């Protein structure tokens, strides 16, 4: 009888060890949220890391916007960063309803120095194909007020 307890204890300790190893591996596999992806994209862009920022675009967005065109498209964002600085804060996130009833998730940031006053002048806009996408479909700078 003692022997069955020791074997059972041995198997329980092996099982516990395996479960302990599985939890950290599972935690490392968590995907970034859309807010995190959008922030990583904008921070890379503002730091001048074009290739890193470009990698965040979806394959469809990359087909429509080659790297040279991508760099040109980012110029308005870079210009405003010269005025307001490269520090950004989450401004808002949500879903846009388009005319064809397609819901488009978006994440918007503002330059921190611009958001110190009531209502920022600009919104750094990042859009995704759907709520599960982790690659960026589009981006831009939206003027909110003169």
UniProtKB/TrEMBL annotation:
Highest taxon listed in the record's lineage: Bacteria
Species in which this protein is naturally found: Hymenobacter perfusus
Keywords: Signal
Signal sequence segment: 1-27
Protein name: DUF3887 domain-containing protein
């Amino acid at each position: 009888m003692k022997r069955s307890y020791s074997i059972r204890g041995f198997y329980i300790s092996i099982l516990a060890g395996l479960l302990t190893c599985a939890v950290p591996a599972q935690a490392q596999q968590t995907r970034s949220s859309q807010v995190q992806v959008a922030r990583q994209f904008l921070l890379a862009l503002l730091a001048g890391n074009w290739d890193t920022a470009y990698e965040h675009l979806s394959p469809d967005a990359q087909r429509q916007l080659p790297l040279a065109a991508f760099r040109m498209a980012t110029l308005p964002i870079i210009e405003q960063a010269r005025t307001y600085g490269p520090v950004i804060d989450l401004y808002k996130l949500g879903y846009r309803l388009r005319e064809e009833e397609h819901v488009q998730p978006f994440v918007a940031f503002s330059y921190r120095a611009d958001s110190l006053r009531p209502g920022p002048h600009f919104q750094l806009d990042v859009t995704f194909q759907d709520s599960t996408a982790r690659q960026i479909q589009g981006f831009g700078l939206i003027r909110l007020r003169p």
